[in-house]
Amino acid sequence: MCGRYVSTSSVQDLAEYFGAVGLPTAETLAPSWNVAPTDPILVALQRLDRETGELVRRLRQVRWGLVPSWSKDPGGGARMINARAETVHEKPAFRKAFATRRCLIPADGYYEWKPVPAAGGKKAYKQPYFLAPAAGTLMPMAGLYEFWRDRSVPEDDDPAAWLATATIITTDATDAAGRVHDRMPLTIDAADFDAWLDPELTDAAEVRRLLHTPGGDELRITPVSTAVNSVRNNGAQLLDQVPDPLPVT
Predict the structure, then answer these.
(1) In the annotation, is 2 catalytic?
(2) What is the tens place of the pLDDT at every residue in 46-69?
(3) Beta carbons of 83 and 101 less than 8 angstroms apart
(4) Distance in angstroms (rounded) separating the CA atoms of residues 234 and 10
């Protein structure tokens, strides 16, 4: 499960990292240390350019929480922030996007929570942890994106009629990550970026071979303040280390 993550890289840095065309300045997103479901996020994707007919890799702003194209309304998107790697190719909500609309979602790291039992007169609570690559590198999380058409918007108002959304693919957590939570975001190797983003690669078996299990030993685990629990809180201070109430590191 990945329900919150951190994304602070600039559009320029992300464009260089993914080899993508950057967004106009007006659409860039501010750094966030508390990205939450339904927030606008940046993804790297590859689509045919309408004018040239060529495949172009771009950074695009979408909403976190996938809304299938056949949905009656976008309300269920908040429940589809994650897709399981084991079944993503066969679930109706994700099957079509897995075949042709794959993306990469950049993150500095992500948050998970571990229950702390009541003790010493204190109530039980969930301790948040920030998990990030030990080397400080970017996490290119595997994602899917989709377009939903709002039928209540007149056809001549085309841009406003479409909602672009995305989901993060998760897998079984390994080693260090598994001591906090049994699931973790699945990352894509840099060598597989081209294949993962290629909409012309539609064979499910071939695509699934790109879903390698990431190495949990490469993640650094930091106990952080419960301030991250509120979506209203943001800022680099959310990553400040606090005393660890549980032996997870």
Answers:
(1) yes
(2) 998 888 888 999 999 999 999 999
(3) no
(4) 17
User: DSSP string spanning the chain?
Assistant: ----EEE---HHHHHHHHT-BPPPGGGPPPPEEEE-TT-EEEEEEEEE-TTT--EEEEEEEEEES---TT-SSGGGGGG-SEEETTTTTT-TTTHHHHHH-EEEEEESEEEEEEEE--BTTBPPEEEEEEEEETT---EEEEEEEEEEE-TTS-TTSHHHHEEEEEEEEEEE--HHHHTT-SEEEPB--GGGHHHHH-TT---HHHHHTT-PPP-GGGEEEEEB-GGGGSTT--SGGGG-B---SS---
Q: CA-CA distance, 184 to 110, in Å (whole number)?
A: 9
Catalytic residue status for 112: yes
Spatial distance between the Cα atoms of 37 and 226, rounded to a whole number of angstroms: 18
CA distance 73 to 71: 5
Catalytic residue among 2, 27, 51, 86: 2
Question: Lowest-confidence range among 92-106, 156-170, 219-233?
Answer: 156-170
Q: Which of 4, 22, 25 is nearest to 13 (CA)?
A: 22
Report if pTM > 0.90.
yes
Among residues 27, 54, 103, 112, the one annotated as catalytic is 112
